[in-house]
Amino acid sequence: MILELKRIFLNEGARLTADTEVDLSADSTENGTFPERVKGRVTVTNHADVVTLEAEVWLRYHFRCDRCCEESDADLRYRFNHILVADADRENGDDYIEAPDYMLDTDALLRDDILLELPSKFLCKD
After folding, report:
1. Strand pairing of 50-64 and 38-47?
2. φ, ψ for residue 10 (rounded to 5)?
3. What is the SS3 assignment for 18?
4. CA angle, 33 as apex, 60 and 27 as ends, to 5°?
5. Which residues, including other chains, have CB under 8 Å from residue 96's CB and lie 6 or more apart?
6. First to last CA, the chain
7. 57 compared with 49, residue with greater pLDDT
8. pTM
């Protein structure tokens, strides 16, 4: 989903909340796959001229246990926070998420966040 954020960036106190679904079926990892679309909620807020994005996602992950090799599913929930800028300078480019022309592709951002957050090992039981 592409969010148009000009109103948020230009108005202190502005807020936008949107529900989203991300298809990660093509993004199988070494350990597993995503059998269902990832559901999420994204909130973008301008507080004191600092634009933040808060996201919460719920997903099912199908994996092969690293201990017993049995197949299993895990229901996962993650939260992500980012500071958004309209134009990132080179010095602080990694600290912020750039929204060029006040547009942000939440699917790509959430995809990267989820893939980075997944544990390196999955176990079917503690």
Report:
1. antiparallel
2. -95, -5
3. strand
4. 110
5. 82, 83, 84, 85, 88
6. 36
7. 57
8. 0.89
β-bridge mates for residue 80, sequence order: 55
Query: Which of 4-8, 52-56, 84-88, 111-115 has the lowest average pLDDT?
Result: 84-88
CB-based contacts of 84, cutoff 8 Å, min separation 6: 5, 9, 44, 51, 52, 53, 96, 97, 98, 99, 104
Q: Which residue has 């990832």 as its token pair?
A: 38
Tokens for 43, please give them. 């909130």
Q: What tens digit of pLDDT does each residue of 72-121 get?
A: 999 999 999 999 998 866 556 567 999 999 999 999 999 999 999 999 89
- Contact 61/71 with Cβ under 8 angstroms? no
CA distance 58 to 29: 17
Which residue type sits at 28? Answer: S
